[in-house]
């Protein structure tokens, strides 16, 4: 069995950062925004964000579970406190597949964030409005996600993404590059987000 994602990430941090720096960043409470673009500096270039990207590409090994659900990031941090993510979790619980499902959050600038990590810095401590994503950083995002999707499709039997148009276009482009698009299902987010999420989760267990 693979090491769980939290332990993977913590071990990676201790291999790459001084202990004092790790203690400092883990003392930052969830929900406190400390990373944002300032008009000149883009947080894609922040050392901790770039380290996360390295982790995803070099070290990340998805835990093998039957199902995988991709959700969009939210302005509320941690993501799990948002209404849409609470609906998703309730639906997974109602179907009895919560422990069999890995949830990944599509995010700029974080690329993909396993839900197990969403209470930790920097995932619970950034602000990045989609309209601030430039062409250059969109290309970087697509490249990173495409590499991670190759790992994800090997770890899960069924993958469903329910994403608004902005995130959907990024993931579909990444999936095309990774040659994984035929192994994924996509559900339009639509105006009725709660209903779209319920439909997407039902597709995870749909045998037709």
What does this structure look like?
- By secondary structure, the chain is an alpha/beta fold.
- The chain has one domain: Uracil-DNA glycosylase-like (Rossmann fold, 3-Layer(aba) Sandwich).
- It is built from 7 helices and 7 strands.
- The protein has helices at 5-16, 19-25, 47-58, 83-94, 135-155, 165-178, 193-205, and strands at residues 35-36, 67-72, 101-107, 111-114, 126-127, 158-163, 185-188.
- The chain has a 5-stranded mixed beta sheet with strand order 4-3-2-6-7, sandwiched between helices.
- Strand 3 (101-107) and strand 4 form a beta hairpin.
- Helix 4 (83-94) runs parallel beside helix 7 and helix 5 crosses helix 6.
- The longest helix has 21 residues, at 135-155.
- It is globular and about 50 Å long.
- The protein starts with a helix and ends with a helix.
- Spell out the CATH superfamily: Uracil-DNA glycosylase-like
Q: State the order of secondary-structure elements, H for helix, E for strand.
A: HHEHEHEEEHEHEH
Counting DSSP H or I runs of 4 or more residues, the number of helices is: 7
Could you tell me the CATH topology label.
Answer: Rossmann fold
Strands ordered across the widest β-sheet: 4-3-2-6-7
Give the C-level CATH assignment.
Answer: Alpha Beta
Q: Assign the structural class, choosing from mainly alpha, mainly beta, alpha/beta, alpha+beta, or little secondary structure.
A: alpha/beta
**What number of structural domains do the residues give?**
1
Average predicted confidence as pLDDT: 94
Short structural description:
The protein has helices spanning 5-16, 19-25, 47-58, 83-94, 135-155, 165-178, 193-205; strands spanning 35-36, 67-72, 101-107, 111-114, 126-127, 158-163, 185-188.
